[in-house]
Each structure stands twice: as C-alpha cells, then as structure tokens.
Specification:
The complex is a heterotrimer.
Chain A: H1 5-30
Chain B: H1 2-25, H2 52-87, H3 90-124, H4 126-136, H5 139-159, H6 168-199, H7 214-218, H8 223-252, H9 256-277, H10 280-294, H11 296-303, H12 310-332, H13 339-361, H14 370-376, H15 390-414, E1 416-417, H16 423-450, H17 453-481, E2 486-487, H18 497-523, E3 528-530, E4 534-535, H19 546-573
Helix pairs in contact in B: 1-5, 1-6, 2-3, 2-6, 2-8, 2-19, 3-4, 3-5, 3-19, 5-6, 6-8, 8-9, 8-10, 8-18, 10-11, 12-13, 12-15, 12-18, 13-15, 15-16, 15-17, 16-17, 18-19
Chain C: H1 2-23, E1 36-37, H2 44-56, H3 79-87, H4 102-114, H5 148-161, E2 178-179, H6 192-199, H7 221-224, H8 227-235, H9 254-257, H10 260-271, H11 292-299, H12 327-335, H13 354-357, H14 360-371
Antiparallel strand pairs in C: 1-2
Helix pairs in contact in C: 2-5, 4-5, 6-10, 8-10, 11-14, 12-14
The chains are: A mainly alpha, B mainly alpha, C mainly alpha.
C-alpha cells in the first residue's frame, strides 16, 4: 500500500517540515518575536 | 456483603470531601494586623552546639525522601492493580501488592522523621513556626487529621488485599486505594503550600500582617508549579527505588522463576521512573519561569548568581540517570530474539547521549589563572566556550530526551511485530518525524546561538515542543501500527547482572539529585525565612558553599540508604520462615 | 556478598557526586555578623564610592542592569546624553518631566528606584504590558531595602557617571546607619587592624610603630583632619598632599578595592588614633638597623615593591632581582632611582634620598640582603 517506501519517506519529510514550521512560527509569534527576519549580528 | 457496600460508600464520600474539608476550614479570614516577628540573632536558641540549620535541613530532606516514596508507590500500585483487572493477569496484582509491602515498612518511619522535623523546627525556629501557625491556622490541624486518615486507609488498603481480591470486591479495594491516594496527594499539596509560601508569600501585606484567608496564602504563586514538579518527581523517585529493590532481589535470588519475576518488576519500575522523569524538565521549566515572573531577583540568583555552578552538578546527575536508564533499556533488548536486530543502533544513540551529556556539563565561564586566560585568549574557550551557553545546553538536553525515548521505543518494538499492511510506510513516517524533529531542535539551537538574548530564550520553546511532538507523534503512530501485533516471546530473567547495577544508579542518583534541588530551592530565599517578609537573622542564615552542601547531601543520602536497607530487610523478614518449621501458607 | 557489592557500588557513586561538588569553584559564604556603620561625615566622593558599592552589591542593580539585555546597561551607556533625552520623552509624565538639569535628573533616578513603573524605557517593560509595567523591584522595599542615604548614594554615583555634579544631600548623624550585606563572594573585613594589614597602610605610614615615613604620620590625624577629609584622602590620595610629601605615591585605587564598610571602619579607626609619642631627636632614621631585613622594614621597600610576597606592584618585584642585576647595579638603582627605569614601570615614583638617609652600613646590609633574595 502507498507505493514505494522512499516515496512515502519523501512525502512524510515534507509534511513534517510543514508541521514543524507551523509550530515554530506560531510559538515565535505568540512570544512576539519576528519570524523570517535577518537577525544576523552586523 | 453489607460491610463492603458500606466501605465503598464511605470511601467515595471521603475521596470527594477530603479536599473540600481542607478548603472549608481555610476560608475563615482572621485579620491579624500585626507584622511578622523580627527575631534578632540572639533570639535563636543555641543548644549544645547543635547546628540548627543542618539538623532542620537533614530532617526535612529525610522526611521528604521517605514521604516522596510513600506517596508515590500507592499511586502506581493502584495503577498496576487496575492493569491486573483490565488484563486479567494476576502477575500485575502480585506486583502491586509487593510494591505496597515495601511502603508499609517505610510509612511509620516517614511519620517518625516528620515528627522529628516538626520538633527541630519548633525548638530552633520558634518565631518562624509561631508565625507560620498564625498564617495557616486550622490548616495545620487538618493536616494532622488527614495524616491519621492516611494511616487508616493505608493499613486497610494493604491488609484487605486478599479479602477483597476477586470480582466486585476488587473494585471496593481499588476505591480504598483511591482514597488513600487522594488523601496522600492532599497532604503533599498542603505541605507544598507551606514551602512555597515561604518563597512567594501571599495573603499578607509587606510587613507580614495577615490580610487574606488561608486559601489565599495556600494559593501563592509558586504553589502549583511546585505541586506539579514534586508530583512528577515523586513518581520517578518511587519507581527508581522500587527498581533498586527489584534489582537487588534479582541478584540475590537463585530460582529462575523468581528471577524472571524480579526482572519484570525491575523493568516495570524503570519504565515508571522514566515516565515520571521525561516530563520533569518541562515542569522544572515552568517552575523556573514562575519564579522569574514572581521575582526576577530570585530567578537570577538561581540561574546566574551564586547557585549557577550547581547546575553543573545537576547536569552530571541527570546525565548519569539518563545513561543508566538507557543502558538498562539496551541490555533489555537481549530479552527477545528480535532485540539483537535493534542492538546495532545502540552505539549511535550512545554517542548522541554521551555527547549531549558532555555539552551539558561544559561550564560557560571557567575559573582560570591569569596565565591560563592569556593562553586561552579570554575566559571563554574559543571552541568549548560557545558550548557553555544556553542554546547549546538546551539543544543537548532535548536531544538526550529524544534519544532516550528512541531507546525506549526500540525496546518496546523489539517484542512486537507489526502486522498492519502499511507497516513499512508507517516506519518511514516515524523515521521522517524523528529526522525533521531533530533537525528542528538543532536548527532552533543554531538560531538561538547567533541571535540576541531575548531570542535565545524564545528559541528554546520550539525545541521543547519539538521533543514533545516527536514523543507524542510516535506514540500515536505506534498505537495504530502495533494494533494486533504479533508478540514475540520475552525471556524475562535473561538479563546480565551488570544491567542490574544500572537500576541501582537510578535511586542513588535520584536521591542525591533531590537533595541538591532541595538545597537550591531553599537557598533561593537567600537570608529570608519568608522571602521579603521575615528575615532570617540566625547565625546560619547564609548560603552554604557547594562543598558543604555536597557533604551534607551525601550524609543525608547515606542515612536514607541505611533506612531503605532496613526497610527492605523488614519486608523480607515477614516471609522468612524459621528453619525446621513448616510454612502454614506460602506467601507471595 | 551481593549485598556488600551493591552497597560498595552505591558508596563509590555517592563519593563521586560529592567529589564533583568539591571540584567546582566554591562560593564561600560570609559568616560575619552584619555590622552597622555610621555614614556621618561622608563627603561626595565617599557617597559616589558608596553608591558604586551599592550598585554592584546590596542594591543588586547589576543583576539586570548589565550587557544581557534585561535592563538598560547603566555602566556602559552614555548617561550624559541619555538622562536629558529620558526627561524629554513624550511618554514620561513623572516628577521631572520636561525639566532639565542635575536636580531634575536626581528626581528622575530616585523616582525610578521607588516607583519603577512610573516610566519604563521602551522595550524593557514586562511582557504583554506594552512597556507600562516594569519588571524591576522597588529599591526601598524588601528584599533590597535601600535606605534613604543609600538611594541618595546610588543617585550620586549615577550623576557622577553622567558627568554631573551630584546634587543629593550628604548624610547626617541622624540618618540610619548602613549595613553591608553579604551579597558578594568576598567577605568584608570587620577588624580595622586586618584592614590595615590587607591594604598595607603601615608600609608607608607610621602606623602601629611601623616607623615608615614615606607617607604622613597617621597618629592623631583626627585632630588635624575632618572625617570627610580622611576618607577622601584614602579614596583620592592626590586631592590634597600633606606638606613635605610627594603626590602619586599612594595607590589611587583603594576606593575600588575596599568595600564600603571597610572604608568606614578604617576611617573611624584612624580618627581615633592617639597623637604619636613625642619624637626624640635621634629618632631620625631610628636606631641603626643590624640586618638587611630590618633595613627593608625601616625604609618600607615592600610598600611599593613586591618583596617577600607583599604583592605591591608600584615598583618592580625584588625577589630574585639578583638574576637581573649585579650588586653594584642594585646599589646604583637605590641611590639614583631615575637613572634606569625598569620596563613597565614609571619614573618619579621612588624617593631619591635613600642615599642620604641610610648609613653606609645599612646600605651594605640592604644590597647584600637583596642580592641573596631568592625568587
């Protein structure tokens, strides 16, 4: 079922990336911290 | 029949009303408009050169060790009992009973040491105790009352085990256990209120005059964080000690059947200990956050001031616990024939855990001589220095937690073969979860690394959430994947002797760790009895040096170990039969 | 057997944990009873010094006012420019809003200590309060409990940092005494004799019959100088130079090295010193020394040179000097100190009249003593 296990792996990676990105983003925003801004020290 | 109905009714009533009773009595608001006493140095009794602080410290810590154990064991005894009802497996029931047998012997000692603590406080700190009694009024009497109730239910719960073992009666028995646990937890919550009141007083004005109800004083800002922290720690601690007992019995027994039983008991106890231990850092994080919110000063005293070095020892202890727990799990892979297949991953997990451990114990600033500073080019080592700061430590801790969980998952899987059609795909999803989650933890760590302080703290939250996501995610996936799984034969008792020593590491390190945390917690008040309200002017109001604290904690731990050896010996004495006589009945 | 092995294993582990607690750096507690000292007679430099010690000590200000971003870094930022801009900040409506000058700044600082939320610098408020509530504890309430004098001292310290003349009132005898609390790692000395030992006063001043005469006689100084002037002379020795003595001899950093209670106790002690016994004529130089060590003591060499572990660093270290210089060179350097100045040291520091004061015998003893001094 669901075809080749490596295909599943690739899809899963992408889905989990989305999930974790969403988690990080919402956590950082509730803390009032910027997301996707360049914070590298000058 | 009638009597058991009566018992059931009574137990439910008490379970419902015990906490209410506490609240009801605490509602009268007596206004005592005089401040906290201000004893001067000469007001503290000096008796025969006894160090008042060391005495109260030892008594309090010893009482806490015993109480934590005595409260925790009934918690998982009733859970185990419930398991036996659900699975119909009598082994669970026997084990629950054995848990309780150890508790029984420890119980009276808990009360004894508690009395000693009370006495030493009353004798050496009469002003403080007088004031505390004014603040908490009737609650202290209720505490005594509940203590009596705890004794009664504990004895009934243990001695009615066989009388109420089968059928409906089992439920009556479990109801008694429920009352026992309710009363026990209520006792702990009350005692916690007194402790946390001393750190974050409420219900009084700045001079210490009582303005609120007892309930307000009880519900002070640090009460609930402390409740949660101690609750989880108790479970981990109780599990660790019972594990030590099982390991000792495993080593001492020759009969393979009994060896198998104690191996299984050790495994279950270790599982309970880890279960309580994994969420502890998060409870600790909450407690610390609340301390900061209550008083920034107190928070900084803990994390950046005099006590900062303590967290290096804490790291050593927790690292030791994690390594031991992992080692035990890895040894357990040998119990199944399939386990060997997983054993090849162990070395990678070991590398991560040891590596994480090393990062964690790396101090930020080193104490160096001028010459060494010159050679290093600063107080922070060029390469090692960055490992000492928070993002690196957080990353290390979270990775250690994730990989410990992985050890556990491998072990769990070693005895189960999934039969669902999508097993292979499912595995890939779990692997992907680990990969992305770990990447996220490391990524957040790097992000925190290069950004200013505020972001460093901010970035630690996603790390914690990632760890929890991995754990919860894989548990859920496993539940579905292992549905109807073929179980592999587990050879209980097929364990090395060496692995049992890992089970001794846990109680010893836990006991010492609890002693250390107690030292940190009470040191946070610096030279106050009740923070900002009542000063400690006694000659021993200072924060003892790490060395002194280490010695004292070691001495208390030794005392506790001696008590535990006595307790275990007592519980075995009960079933020892005099040589040359016949046993009336074969005890469990 | 199993029992013994298990117990042994646990013991080893316990000792290991205990060992770690011994290995880590120790913060020794201050066991001394807090002593209270009157601030009466403290002058402005004294107030500034008190303020600095409170800022890093009892006041615990540096816990947050540091480079970690918890609160404005008062020790690093340009206060001279910052204070006026704060008073003119549109959101500031406190006692000194819109005013200017040192007095207004005094009001602003005092207000921020007593009521930290009166004005919160943007970005430093409690989370979620939009900078309307400060996380800072009130300085005159528990657990900090600064007294009025202590808060004034902190203001003086900050005004001084902002290059302003401090405007706070000086303490009087009625003010509450200050008690230095054991906040820091180093315990303050509580016995004036220990303080004199620690800071080596007797090496240059004639104190407790040390006979040194590089600095002025301290006996009976209470009848010659006010308490404030004595204190000032310790903190800022070059402000007033006694007749017949040279500037720059006394280290100027005692103010930073001493803890406040030490300074106050030392001043009290000095003020109470009796007049020295009448100086007899032949006391000039005292009885002639008979050993090299006596010469060293009589002429106070170790007050400036690191000699027999005196740790002084105004002049070069003398232990092991024979590895660097011959006996003749040593003698020449004593007679004419300015001829050759060692690397890393300044000229003009060492008295050039030792040649006149010492007898030839003493000089010989001294040179021999120094030549044989091992590292």
């Amino acid at each position: 079922m669901l075809g080749n296990k490596w295909v599943v792996f690739a899809v899963a990676i992408i889905v989990w990336l989305g999930v974790f990105y969403f988690i990080d983003k919402s956590i950082m925003e509730t803390q009032g911290l910027p997301v996707r801004t360049n914070l590298m020290p000058k | 029949m009638k009597i058991s109905h009566l018992i059931a009714l009574l137990t439910v009533a008490i379970a419902l009303f015990a906490p209410d009773l506490v609240l009801a009595a605490t509602d009268e608001a007596a206004r005592v408009l005089e401040g906290a006493p201000k004893p001067s140095r000469l007001d503290y009794p000096v008796i025969a050169g006894i160090s008042a602080r060391k005495l109260a410290w030892s008594m309090a810590q010893m009482h806490l060790f015993l109480a934590a154990f005595v409260l925790a064991v009934p918690l998982f005894a009733i859970a185990t009992e419930f398991m036996s009802v659900v699975t119909g497996d009598d082994r669970f029931d026997d084990m629950a009973r054995e848990f309780m047998k150890i508790t029984m012997a420890a119980y009276s000692l808990t009360a004894l040491v508690g009395g000693g603590l009370l006495l030493s406080l009353l004798v050496f700190y009469p002003h403080l105790m007088g004031y505390m009694i004014k603040v908490f009024r009737g609650q202290m009497l209720i505490y005594a009352l509940l203590f009596g109730l705890e004794s009664i239910t504990l004895y009934i719960y243990f001695y009615s085990w066989d009388a109420l073992r089968r059928g409906n009666r089992k439920w009556y028995h479990m109801s008694i256990g429920l009352v026992l646990n309710t009363v026990g937890l209520t006792l702990m919550f009350i005692a916690n209120a007194w402790t946390s009141f001393m750190m974050s007083p409420a219900g009084i004005d700045p001079s210490g005059a009582i303005t609120g109800t007892v309930w307000e004083a009880t519900r002070n800002p640090l009460w609930n964080p402390l409740n949660l922290h101690r609750f989880l720690a108790n479970i981990a601690y109780g599990g660790a000690i019972v594990g030590g007992y099982a390991a000792y019995m495993f080593l001492a027994e020759k009969d393979p059947v009994k060896k198998a039983h104690y191996d299984w008991m050790g495994y279950t106890s270790n599982f309970i200990a880890i279960l309580g231990f994994l969420p502890l850092p998060f409870a600790g994080y909450w407690l610390m956050a609340e301390i900061y919110a209550y008083s920034q000063q107190m928070g900084i005293t803990a994390m950046g001031g005099i006590l900062a070095w303590l967290f290096i020892i804490q790291a050593v202890l927790i690292g030791t616990i994690m390594l031991a727990a992992n080692y035990y799990l890895w040894s357990g892979l040998m119990r199944t024939d399939r386990g060997a297949e997983y054993a090849k991953y162990v070395k990678y997990i070991a590398v991560v855990i040891v590596g994480g451990f090393l990062v964690w114990v790396t101090p930020h600033t080193l104490i160096l001589t001028a010459n060494e500073i010159q050679n290093l080019g600063g107080t922070h080592h060029k390469i090692l220095g960055p490992l000492g700061i928070m993002p690196a430590k957080n990353t290390a801790v979270n990775l250690m937690l994730v990989f410990t969980f992985m050890s556990f998952q491998l072990f769990y899987r070693s005895s189960r073969i999934p039969v669902v059609s999508w097993a292979k795909s499912g595995n890939m999803i779990v692997v992907a979860l680990y990969v992305v989650g770990i990447t996220n933890i490391v990524g957040a760590g790097l992000y925190g690394y290069i950004t200013p302080t505020v972001y460093k703290v901010g970035a630690s939250v996603p790390q914690v959430v990632s760890t929890l996501t991995i754990i919860i995610g894989s548990v859920i996936l496993d539940v579905f994947m292992l549905r109807g799984a073929k179980s592999e034969k587990v050879h209980w008792g097929r364990m090395t002797e060496r692995s049992q020593y890992a089970l001794f590491v846990l109680p010893v390190a836990f006991t010492w760790l609890m002693g250390l945390m107690g030292y940190i917690r009470s040191s946070l008040r610096t030279n106050w009895h009740i923070y900002t309200v009542m000063k400690d002017n006694s000659p021993e109001n200072y924060i003892p040096s790490l060395r002194d604290a280490g010695n004292t904690i070691t001495a208390i731990t030794l005392g506790f170990m001696a008590i535990m050896v006595f307790v275990f010996w007592l519980s075995r004495l009960g079933k020892t039969i005099q040589k040359g006589t016949t046993a009336q009945e074969d005890a469990t | 057997m199993t029992f013994l092995r298990v117990i042994g294993f646990s013991l080893v582990m316990l000792l290991g944990f205990m060992g770690v607690s011994h290995l880590l750096p120790q913060v020794e507690p201050d066991l001394s009873e807090p002593i209270e000292v009157s601030t009466d007679g403290l002058d402005m430099p004294g107030m500034i010094a008190l303020g600095e010690s409170l800022f890093t000590g009892k006041g615990t200000c540096t816990l947050c006012h540091n480079g970690m971003g918890r609160a404005p870094d008062l020790l690093e930022m340009d206060l001279a420019a910052t204070f006026p801009s704060r008073l003119n900040d549109g959101r500031y409506t406190g006692v000194s809003a819109g005013k200017e000058g040192a007095k207004a700044i005094e009001g602003y600082i005092l207000e921020s200590m007593k009521d930290p939320s009166a004005f919160v610098v943007s970005g430093f408020g409690k989370k979620g309060t939009n900078d309307t509530e400060s996380p800072m504890p009130t300085a005159d309430k528990a657990p900090i409990e600064l007294t009025v004098v202590e808060m004034n001292a902190v203001v003086a310290f900050l005004q001084d940092r902002a290059e302003l003349e401090p405007t706070v009132p000086l303490p009087s005898a009625e003010d509450a005494p200050v008690a230095e609390e054991p906040v820091e790692t180093i315990a303050a000395l509580t016995d004036p004799v220990d303080i004199i030992d620690e800071y080596g006063c007797a090496a240059c001043h004639n104190l407790n019959d040390s006979g040194a005469d590089i600095g002025p006689e301290l006996g009976g100084i209470g009848s010659r100088l006010s308490r404030a002037l004595v204190m000032e002379s310790i903190i800022d020795p070059n402000a007033v130079i006694a007749d017949g003595y040279d500037a720059d001899f006394m280290p100027a950093d005692f103010g930073e090295q001493m803890q406040l209670t030490e300074l106050l106790l030392l001043t009290d002690y000095l003020m109470a010193l009796p007049e020295p016994a009448a100086v007899s004529e032949d006391d000039e130089g005292g009885p002639e020394a008979t050993t090299g060590l006596e010469v060293v003591e009589n002429y106070g060499c170790s007050g400036c040179h690191d000699l027999n572990d005196s740790k002084a660093d105004i002049g070069p270290k003398l232990n092991g000097i024979a590895n660097r210089m011959s006996a003749d060179e040593i003698k020449a350097a004593i007679l004419d100190p300015e001829a050759v100045i060692a690397d890393g040291f300044e000229g003009g520091m060492m008295p050039d009249d030792f040649g006149d004061e010492m007898t030839d015998g003493e000089m010989a003893l001294l040179v021999e003593y120094l030549t044989n001094l091992t590292e």
